[in-house]
Amino acid sequence: MAKIAIIKTGGKQYKVSQDQVLKIEKINAEPGASLKFQTLLVADEAKMELGKPVLGELVEGQIVEQGRKDKVSVIKFKNKTRYKRNVGHRQPFTKVKITKI
């Protein structure tokens, strides 16, 4: 079992391991910039450390890419009243590679 951690960013929690690439909520920074994440739990084969509520900023990552997800169509329609509304949304994201736990 490799070393794993649970981090908190963007109002969500993620289970990560070293060299993992994941998409998180958008962070305003350039690709190549390094980040530190609030760590809630760190575990490996021998022991587990649990924060009360956090351990600190033990996990580091590097921004790989900034982007936007595929378009989601939100359609409102009311029958027999000639009402139709179509709105699109593309959620921004940041792709991060975990470099150190």
UniProtKB/TrEMBL annotation:
Keywords: Ribonucleoprotein, Ribosomal protein, RNA-binding, rRNA-binding. Pfam families: Ribosomal_L21p. It comes from the Bacteria. GO terms for biological process: translation. GO terms for molecular function: rRNA binding; structural constituent of ribosome. One of its GO terms (cellular component) is ribosome. Part of the 50S ribosomal subunit. Contacts protein L20. This protein binds to 23S rRNA in the presence of protein L20. Belongs to the bacterial ribosomal protein bL21 family. This is Large ribosomal subunit protein bL21. It comes from Candidatus Falkowbacteria bacterium GW2011_GWA2_41_14.
